[in-house]
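Let's inspect a concrete specimen:
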Amino acid sequence: MRRRAWLAGGVAVAAATAGVGLAIWRLRGGATQAETALWQMSFERPDGGSLAMASLRGRPLILNFWATWCAPCVREMPLLDRFQREQRAAGWRVVGLAIDGAAPVREYLVRLPMSFAIGLAGSGGVELTRSLGNASSALPFTVVFDREGRAFDRKRGGVQPDDLARWSRQLG
């Protein structure tokens, strides 16, 4: 009986140590599995070709999940476009991943072209947003990545000018 208690205590201590080690590793900047997987993904572009996420690593990135049927998403697109044009020289990139079909995205971009890259995540993008911290699957959803490819901040709901200014200052 004593031996089992000692064994159970040892397992509990080992599990706690592993948990603390994982927390410290994450605080020091270790990437989550979702972040690591994201950088290996590639998305079809509405105008043809593909968008390889790995090509965007090494610079600050605003990754915005949106849809043509999402009113707050459509409202923030010109703001994200302006940020991309103004901050591109500073190394920033903006990417929009559409949780939508190719045809509606193409139609939208004909009416309102964007200077930033758009990828088609389709319905699978919903699960990607969840894995990146959007438990409610709400749109729009934005993840800001630092130069090392780690998620720096997340925002559910529409991006505001103050958000962009803060991210630019903090990751500048």
In short: The helical segments are 2-27, 33-38, 71-87, 102-111, 124-131, 161-171. The two ends are 60 Å apart (CA to CA). The CA atoms of residues 112 and 123 lie 23 Å apart.
